[in-house]
Write a structure and sequence with these properties.
single chain; alpha+beta; three-stranded antiparallel beta sheet; STK19-like; Serine/threonine-protein kinase 19
């Protein structure tokens, strides 16, 4: 595997792009299961391989870039993701870790994550708030897109009952919505309580790319790289390698 530049001379090396690349607990190496023939198979495999993170309870999610590294046909991936999103099998979330970063989470996992966040919020506020139920029943299941406008949000919530300004604040504070920076009347749907994981994605990318940048030819054998641990990310090396391969910052070369 390599950082997108020169020829290499050993089995399979990783190279990093001009930009600047934990140990796996799985018996198969990344090289053995790098390419899948089907988007759903890839999603289930990566869900099962999602790293366990100390002191953080988060349901598994897959980065769209990771799918691109594992399914050869990107058009097929996009088409199948759109179908799965519309069928409410999974949800797509825009992340703040990069302009084109999207997370994919199975609906059942998202609902678990949401209920955990709601329980925490209601414990903190010492009350039960109907807006969370309205959000799940009337918004989540009828709005599969990654974002929603303010008026549409109010309209859907109002099917459940009378909506107050504080209700929208509760949804934002629970981590279920974030305001779009360029349009305050639009919201992104969000995965609650994954702030530390998002920080790990950003820091892990930088650390991995920096590690490869320091190599003489900006490359390293994949089997060796997989066994290295990252200091700045709670996510494992496999997670970051798939991400950077799919985004084009790294590439593999057979030699």
């Amino acid at each position: 595997m390599e950082t997108n530049n020169t020829p290499s001379t050993s089995r399979k090396r990783v190279r990093e792009d001009d930009d600047s690349v934990p140990e796996s607990n799985h018996s198969l190496s990344l090289e053995d299961d790098l390419i899948f023939s089907d988007t759903m198979v890839a999603l289930h495999m990566m869900r099962a391989q999602f790293p366990r993170i100390d002191k953080v309870i988060v349901e598994p999610f897959v980065l769209q870039s990771q799918l691109y590294s594992s399914v050869k046909d990107r058009t097929q991936v996009d088409r199948e993701l759109e179908s799965l999103r519309r069928e409410k099998v999974l949800r797509v979330f825009k992340l703040n870790t990069g302009q084109d970063d999207h997370a994919l989470m199975f609906m059942e996992d998202y609902l678990k994550q949401m209920k955990r966040a709601v329980k925490s919020m209601e414990t903190k506020k010492q009350g039960v708030f109907p807006v969370f139920e309205w959000f799940e029943v009337h918004v989540i299941h009828s709005k599969p897109e990654p974002c929603i406008g303010h008026q549409e949000l109010l309209s859907l919530l109002s099917v459940g009952g009378k909506v107050k300004d504080e209700d929208i604040s509760l949804l934002i504070n629970a981590g279920l919505l974030t305001r779009q920076l360029i349009d305050s009347e639009m919201y992104w749907f969000a995965i609650p309580n994954i702030g530390s994981v998002l920080k790990g994605i950003t820091q892990g990318r930088k650390e991995l790319l920096s590690l490869l940048n320091r190599k003489k030819y900006k490359e390293m054998m994949l089997a060796i790289l997989e066994k290295k641990r990252l200091r700045l990310s709670p996510l494992d090396m496999r997670f970051h390698l798939r991400d950077l391969l799919g985004s084009g910052h790294l590439k593999t070369i057979q030699t």
